[in-house]
Amino acid sequence: RLKNIVLGWNDLLCSKPMMVRDALNQAMDEELERDERVFLLGEEVAQYDGAYKVSRGLWKKYGDKRIIDTPITEMGFAGIAVGAAMAGLRPICEFMTFNFSMQAIDQIINSAAKTYYMSAGFQAVPIVFRGPNGASAGVAAQHSQCFAAWYAHCPGLKVVSPWNAEDAKGLLKSAIRDDNPVVFLENELMYGVPFEMSEESQSKDFTIPIGKAKVERQGTHVSLVSHSRYVSHCLDAAVVLAKEGIECEVINLRTIRPLDVECIETSVMKTNHLVTVEGGWPQFGVGAEICARIMEGPAFNYLDAPATRVTGVDIPMPYAKILEDNSLPQIKDIIFSVKKTLNV
Amino acid sequence: MLQTQLLSNHHFNFGRRGRDSSVGRAGKCDVHRLEEGPPLKAELTREQGLRYYRIMQTVRRMELKADQLYKQKIIRGFCHLYDGQEACAVGIEAAINPSDHLITAYRAHGYTYTRGIAVKEILAELTGRRGGVAKGKGGSMHMYAPHFYGGNGIVGAQVPLGAGIALACQYQGNNQVCVALYGDGAANQGQLFESFNMAALWKLPCIFTCENNQYGMGTSVERASASTDYYKRGDFIPGIRVDGMDVLCVREAFKFAAEHCRSGKGPIVMELKTYRYHGHSMSDPGVSYRTREEIQEVRSKSDPITMLKERMLSNNMASVEEFKEIDIAIRKEVEEAAQYATSDPEPPLEELCNHIFSNDSPLEVRGTNPWARLKSVS
């Protein structure tokens, strides 16, 4: 705990606010510079500077060979990226959104994820699939799905879901350096959000380990476990709840697969209450997995109430703002769920 | 029914030259968007002829042994046999370098052999033993070797992979090419056309190769494809149709294709007209959608191994006894390989969860129940 306080001060003293998109940009820039086998391909990543400007400036700096605009053919270019990874390169394959990755999902699962196992360790596939995941704003049903649960279901994949700018930079660098297929789930609504960056994160060798969650806020009454954008919601809810004397411990998962169960268990054994928060649909989702794992481990005996999941509503995403707003977890939903769980 | 003629006038007729080599003359290959095709003349040395014979015969006998082991239930699951198509794998390998790359679909045992894996490691993989090329974890459809990317189970998925391997060759500037094989069934897959588009746009050194054995599982080419001119299906990509039963035709065509790619002209589409004697897989007797007469006719008139042997004999390039000796040696090799494949132990259960991730620290894997905490190492 002391370490966290010191680091907090450190952040304040040495911070340079950076938007998530720029952190991602910096991560890719540094890795492109560091290793000539790394390259980026996807729709509009080069001359357009990226559909969401995440790859701004990279084509100008690295040229056609390393930053490749593809036609709108996900199955084809994802397969090409996987083949290139098999033959010695280290591709970053961007999906304009992960909704389009469904077209390519066979290449991600059957050609990338399973190959190291099927070949008994002969053929590695060092590839990163990245892009925005989950709901945006007003883009409706076909463009708003969260794929965390789908990809995290599959052995052979690592699935990463950064929240803030520091997460984005450190985790993307780790993902690119990882010799395995990594699904890197960004969030469009977070791209423009600035965060303070630590001194440590300025280094070109700054990485955050995949598979380790982070406690963003210490607490004693309830463990709020979340990933991506909803970590912000949890922290905001925690501020409101603190005024009523409820101290929430907020855990930022950072990685969905492999899940850092130990971090969650340690927290639950301290707070005795668990609330998971995610944007995805409830059935067979990230929260469902966390609950199952807690039941199977030592933390179950420390629960004073059943675990609660806060999720997106179990419907395709509607368009009208009032409907969309009520299809996703709001801060009031988190506050309500915490109080119900604590029976207050 | 075989609608199109399998043996067109593309095969090489051998002229007399001498014992150590012969020069063949052939009719032109069908070409698409090419001014000229592969050469009309080719030289076959005695050494080459005997080598191609030996390799084709080894693949043949290996596949027939797999058939036997499958019927004895020692091999299980999927088993797609390559007998009849040997000239394709052997001709291609004769034309490219070991440092070139190759990827194919699930009818892959022949290519696994030509790309350098021993018969015993292939058979042991089929029987699921620890001495198998993938330690028993892959099976028939998932065998790998240096510069050989399998063995792929999902129809058509290997083609974009092949284009990606070609991209890596171009990127690394190593002057290597990638042969990306697929069947007449896969030829209609959308991802192929996506690959053609990108390969042509970026001039990738990829030799897209359709092994047209006339049937996609039980569906003949006429019932599956609006156009059965598979060498033209690349549209803006040049194409060549080759007699896939003639190992020399295949070799010359692929020498031409490899040169085309290496010279920076971009991809090329090859169609090899070939035939499989077995059904689609071991669960398909292969006679509900074609006649036994048809299979017999191909065997008697176009068998790739017989054709090569007869040509060498009639040109005095080798004797009947020499071929017999080769056959005996191969029979012995395959028999010993089968022995190995049936006696080698199965993979140890302790290794069940290994090889999930490359170059990673050991991780815990959940077993069938919460108390089963299994270990996985890279």
From TrEMBL, chain A:
Boundaries of every Transketolase-like pyrimidine-binding domain copy? 18-193
Keyword Ubl conjugation listed? The answer is no
Q: Which reaction does it catalyse?
A: N(6)-[(R)-lipoyl]-L-lysyl-[protein] + pyruvate + H(+) = N(6)-[(R)-S(8)-acetyldihydrolipoyl]-L-lysyl-[protein] + CO2
EC numbers listed for it are 1.2.4.1
Protein's GO biological process? glucose metabolic process; pyruvate decarboxylation to acetyl-CoA
The UniProt entry, under InterPro entries, shows:
PDHB_mito-type, THDP-binding, Transketo_C/PFOR_II, Transketolase-like_Pyr-bd, Transketolase_C
**Subcellular location field:** Mitochondrion
One GO MF term, please? pyruvate dehydrogenase (acetyl-transferring) activity
Cross-referenced SUPFAM superfamilies, in alphabetical order?
Thiamin diphosphate-binding fold (THDP-binding), TK C-terminal domain-like
User: Could you say which cofactors this protein requires?
Assistant: thiamine diphosphate
- Tell me the domain of life: Eukaryota
EC primary class: oxidoreductase
- Residues making up the signal peptide according to the UniProt record: none
Task: Tell me, in one coarse class, where this protein mainly resides.
Answer: mitochondrion
List the keywords (alphabetical). Answer: Carbohydrate metabolism, Glucose metabolism, Metal-binding, Mitochondrion, Oxidoreductase, Potassium, Pyruvate, Thiamine pyrophosphate, Transit peptide
Assembly state and interactors? Answer: Heterotetramer of two PDHA1 and two PDHB subunits. The heterotetramer interacts with DLAT, and is part of the multimeric pyruvate dehydrogenase complex that contains multiple copies of pyruvate dehydrogenase (E1), dihydrolipoamide acetyltransferase (DLAT, E2) and lipoamide dehydrogenase (DLD, E3). These subunits are bound to an inner core composed of about 48 DLAT and 12 PDHX molecules. Interacts with DLAT.
What function does the entry list? The pyruvate dehydrogenase complex catalyzes the overall conversion of pyruvate to acetyl-CoA and CO2.
Q: Which protein is depicted? A: Pyruvate dehydrogenase E1 component subunit beta
Source organism per UniProt: Sander lucioperca (Pike-perch)
Q: What is the lineage of its organism?
A: Eukaryota, Metazoa, Chordata, Craniata, Vertebrata
From TrEMBL, chain B:
Major enzyme class? oxidoreductase
For this protein, the record's SUPFAM superfamilies field holds: Thiamin diphosphate-binding fold (THDP-binding)
State the reactions this protein catalyses: N(6)-[(R)-lipoyl]-L-lysyl-[protein] + pyruvate + H(+) = N(6)-[(R)-S(8)-acetyldihydrolipoyl]-L-lysyl-[protein] + CO2
Q: How does it assemble?
A: Heterotetramer of two PDHA2 and two PDHB subunits. The heterotetramer interacts with DLAT, and is part of the multimeric pyruvate dehydrogenase complex that contains multiple copies of pyruvate dehydrogenase (E1), dihydrolipoamide acetyltransferase (DLAT, E2) and lipoamide dehydrogenase (DLD, E3). These subunits are bound to an inner core composed of about 48 DLAT and 12 PDHX molecules.
Protein's gene: pdha1b
Dehydrogenase E1 component domain location is 56-349
**Would you tell me the protein name for this molecule?**
Pyruvate dehydrogenase E1 component subunit alpha
Q: What is the lineage of its organism?
A: Eukaryota, Metazoa, Chordata, Craniata, Vertebrata
EC number(s) of the enzyme? 1.2.4.1
Q: Which GO terms describe its molecular function?
A: pyruvate dehydrogenase (acetyl-transferring) activity
Q: What is the source species?
A: Sander lucioperca (Pike-perch)
UniProt function note: The pyruvate dehydrogenase complex catalyzes the overall conversion of pyruvate to acetyl-CoA and CO(2), and thereby links the glycolytic pathway to the tricarboxylic cycle.
- NCBIfam families from the xrefs? PDH_E1_alph_y
Biological process (GO) annotations held by this record are: glucose metabolic process; pyruvate decarboxylation to acetyl-CoA
